[in-house]
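User: Run a structure prediction on this.
Assistant: Running it now.
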Amino acid sequence: MDLFCLISLYFICILQKIELTESCLQDCTILQLQKQIQSSRHKPACVLFSKYVEEYTLKKKLCTLVKDRHSNERYASWNFNSFKYDERMPLPIQTPSVVPTVRCYLTPSQWYDYNDGSTVKHLHKWFQKLISIFDQRIPEASLAELDHSLHHHVLTAVGFYFISEHSYLEQLLMETQEAWRDKVNMLIVHPDSPDLRLISNKYSVKQSPSLIFIENSVKTHNEPVIQLALGPLDVNKQQIDLFMLIREMPVMTLTYAFDRVRQDMVDKDASIRFGIMEVNNSVRRVFEQTVRAAYKIGFPFSVLFSAKWHKTTVIGIDQIVIAERPTPGTFQEALTQHHFMLKSKEGKMLHLDLPWGHYEKTSGIFCAA
């Protein structure tokens, strides 16, 4: 083989190498990159960060993987691009500390870097790990997904948030899903979700973060009903666990606990009447218009109604809500907190000085009566 042939083959190899590295990844601008990062929660974005001085090794491995990926690979539909930059260039995004690096954004605030010099097979295994992480996310709540959940789960929780609250809320929902796996199905509405406005309007969600629990009776095919709506100050693990714990209590346990409170007041000759109300669909609308706590806390809960007097005229009705399981202890705490004084039937003041707070609580866990 003469010198001309050797030179020709050399340039052919170089051209093939350039074609491989240039055709599989498209260089994107910073604006294009930002747009893909913002939509990465719907479709992950993988970017090869490199300097202006071309580096082929990692890019060749990534291109080999991208060009050879099959339709049955989960990452086949992800976005793949490259971004070249100078370290002196001010950028509105955080760049990798080492280049070249493949960075995959699973959400705008959750990304993973790869800059290992291993084989294509190793890179492929890294992508498979990303798929596992991606699958652990809380599913996005579209109207179709929400309708499907309400038809297949008795209880569905839907979270709403602004961008800055994403990490906190999604972590909270993941912990709730893990703790109550068989009891509730978790969904999340992102700020750029296509059905954000429709779902927000349907369930009257106006604040962020918010979390609503919607119950649907699968057996009787009742219409979905909001059982709990938590606003920005109440979206926390304690409120969620309290709601779920009370839901899991047998009805007989709750009515018996409530009866203990009633009997305790009867023994003290307190001037107070008790009743239990089942809130079904036929009375729910009137109930929600009358009881202020109807949308703020979950069922069951207790409300103490008392007349507000001006001289000899009733000018309103006060409502003291007891969100916890009804026991003499929780009843006393609510009355003390609101400075409410009970009277006997003879008009004498009753002093709540018994150690009721010791009833039925063990290490913060509610106990069955």
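The two ends are 95 Å apart (CA to CA).
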